[in-house]
Amino acid sequence: xxxxxxxxxxxxxxxxxxxxxxxxxxxxxxxxxxxxxxxxxxxxxxxxxxxxxxxxxxxxxxxxxxxxxxxxxxxxxxxxxxxxxxxxxxxxxxxxxxxxxxxxxxxxxxxxxxxxxxxxxxxxxxxxxxxxxxxxxxxxxxxxxxxxxxxxxxxxxxxxxxxxxxxxxxxxxxxxxxxxxxxxxxxxxxxxxxxxxxxxxxxxxxxxxxxxxxxxxxxxxxxxxxxxxxxxxxxxxxxxxxxxxxxxxxxxxxxxxxxxxxxxxxxxxxxxxxxxxxxxxxxxxxxxxxxxxxxxxxxxxxxxxxxxxxxxxxxxxxxxxxxxxxxxxxxxxxxxxxxxxxxxxxxxxxxxxxxxxxxxxxxxxxxxxxxxxxxxx
Amino acid sequence: xxxxxxxxxxxxxxxxxxxxxxxxxxxxxxxxxxxxxxxxxxxxxxxxxxxxxxxxxxxxxxxxxxxxxxxxxxxxxxxxxxxxxxxxxxxxxxxxxxxxxxxxxxxxxxxxxxxxxxxxxxxxxxxxxxxxxxxxxxxxxxxxxxxxxxxxxxxxxxxxxxxxxxxxxxxxxxxxxxxxxxxxxxxxxxxxxxxxxxxxxxxxxxxxxxxxxxxxxxxxxxxxxxxxxxxxxxxxxxxxxxxxxxxxxxxxxxxxxxxxxxxxxxxxxxxxxxxxxxxxxxxxxxxxxxxxxxxxxxxxxxxxxxxxxxxxxxxxxxxxxxxxxxxxxxxxxxxxxxxxxxxxxxxxxxxxxxxxxxxxxxxxxxxxxxxxxxxxx
Lengths: 377, 377
Description:
The structure is a homodimer of 377-residue chains.
Chain A: H1 5-39, H2 47-59, H3 64-91, E1 101-103, E2 112-116, H4 122-131, E3 136-140, H5 143-151, E4 157-164, E5 168-169, H6 171-179, E6 183-191, E7 195-198, E8 209-212, H7 214-219, H8 221-225, E9 231-234, H9 238-248, E10 253-257, H10 259-264, E11 268-271, E12 281-288, E13 292-294, E14 299-305, H11 312-322, E15 327-335, E16 338-349, H12 355-367, E17 369-376
Parallel strand pairs in A: 1-13, 2-3, 2-4, 8-9, 8-10
Antiparallel strand pairs in A: 4-5, 4-12, 6-12, 7-10, 7-11, 14-16, 14-17, 15-16
Function (chains A, B): Catalyzes the Claisen rearrangement of chorismate to prephenate and the decarboxylation/dehydration of prephenate to phenylpyruvate.
Main location (chains A, B): cytoplasm
Domain Prephenate dehydratase (chains A, B): 112-289
């Protein structure tokens, strides 16, 4: 006779009670193992012992399916044990020294800040919004130049775009974070809205020529198409287009540029909201050379390389979740000269002084290659 | 007294023996549950029952750490059970209808294939390598055009670059996979090596002018700098530069282009290995409209959107690992008009007919939004 579903579930519940109690006993003994390891300065992660354990439990099963299942289960159980052992190490004050120094506040007065682009560009706007006006600033041609400026101490901070809400991450700047030993100390989101701007006194009906970067012209195509008689002209960047219109003082000319550029070059905004995506924003990071973080910082960016092993990506991520850390972003970039191998970038919520964070980073450092902490901000 | 490590390990071994035997008993009963479900046509995945189980086991633990640990463990145990149940369903000839049809082989003879770029470009080379020479092919200007061609049935397959080993993913083509309901049926890796090519009979000492795409010129900067008297000229793409040199038949001209372009336009290779990264390769995907996969396919690409919830990224990935599926890649792209929300793209090893894959995709479909299977190849 077919057994009743309720009876089967009762049997399962009974097994689960036993398994739960065995699990707790096992964790208790794992704690004693940890104390032994602490006394004897042995490492938490013992790969040989773990492989032996996987072999021995799988040999005790009676089907191919269960052999595979029990191995999966024990990989997880041993990972949980390890995490508890790292917590205990932490409680005993045994942990890697942090290279980062907490500060109350970032110095934002009378510091020198470098940004890529020109005055009036979105990165210029991000800088002004983040630092206010009591700074010295200058601009360079490339993002790499900005990194070099802070490397050589000519600027204290650099402002770089890292992600646009429509276009995605700025891959080059992820690579620069890897290439330079600099630290993210802040971020600033700037709405990227284009406006049509002309010289003061001009009106929409005066306009015959519109100047902008080709991408911006494309993003405002719908608006431009509604004015048949306008002639559009490509320009190297939107701020430069605004500058040209301001310098030439011709009522028939307008630029598509940011409201910041319009204001900076003294132009009048003739039409707002001409970009087809009204929510479009760019996130900028503030980078410096000193390994510091604000005591109130709540977001951490790390990156690491993984060995070519099944499950290594998942196992690395488990260190965040077992420590209750919420990952907000994961990205990968190819590793130079190692075909089809990747460096993973993870953003998660936390502060470098939290024990959960220390715990996760400690565990992670044993399992991944070239772990980097890019900053806490 | 501190207990001996050997004694502790013996205790752990004893616990593990009991746990292994309980695990096997639990799997036995789970099989009976599966038979009951098959008889009564009930679904394998019972979310309510699973959530209740997680709650009840976690209530039996005595620390926050164990509460979290036992939940992780039971998510895994229930996933293993489910996997076994899907296997049994399959043995009874009951399985969910798949939208994908397995085929023995892809049709590669007398089909029409579209690629972006020009003859002699890397995508052209990828197409020839994948399909051989018994096809009709033509090219279009943009990747989107290629997707449109197969959408409207003018071509059976399209060839698109998806990732370069140095530069990373081609973001636009990830977005096109989302925008179109097409399917990846194959991939082809092509080494992206530049050569210096001149007209037949020319030698290195004849050369005075070098034509290529600015990026290629930059990638070969070291080689170019070693020949002081050469004048470099920007060109729209490397294959077009090769074509120009071939057409003008001037011994003083050379192009930096792919070996495929050199061969296609009948040029002589004057110097190989001039690119600073000798390992540089690009991975192309072969896309079609029909939802098919080869029976021997071993790699699956999926994507999904996640709710704004703590741990949702990690939980979604757990479906791959609990089913023993090796993730080989994870990427994210912003979701249009939803600021700072992402669609995640995961590549993993497997075939759509594997029960582990069915289990993972079924579990995933309950936890993520807008799950898409982009192909099995």
